[in-house]
Amino acid sequence: MERWPPVGPAQQATKARQATATLLLIAIFKLLKGAALIAVAIGAMKLLHQDVAETVLHWISFLRVDPENKLIHGLLARLLRVSPINSGR
Predict the structure, then answer these.
(1) Are both 32 and 68 inside the same structural domain?
(2) Domain of 76?
(3) pTM for the full predicted model
(4) pLDDT band for position 35 (cuts 50, 70, 90)
């Protein structure tokens, strides 16, 4: 069964290039996403052996975020509640 309108060799080549470019963009995106996931995992592993609350307080002061901010205050309250006893260690 023929396609209508007929597709010439130039149009087929253009479609092939577009498909290749699309696949390349998807591959690059997935590679960057994987690298970001590895970076987050390494950061989480470093936090396992540190005082999380102290680290968060350091970053809050470094980034000059108001610790009395509603969202930041909630985050701090959750992190400061965690101790070796109730964290399962």
Answers:
(1) no
(2) 50-89
(3) 0.45
(4) very high
What is the spatial distance between Cα 87 and Cα 51, in angstroms, rounded to a whole number? 12
Q: Residue 28 corresponds to which tokens in the numbers above?
A: 């690059």
Q: How many domains does the chain have?
A: 2
Q: Is residue 87 within 8 Å of 58, Cβ to Cβ?
A: no
Contacts of 6 (CB under 8 A, 6+ apart): none
Largest Cα–Cα separation, the chain: 73
Mean pLDDT over 46-73 rounds to: 79
d(CA 65, CA 73): 11
User: What does DSSP assign to residue 61?
Assistant: H
> Cα 58 from chain centroid?
22
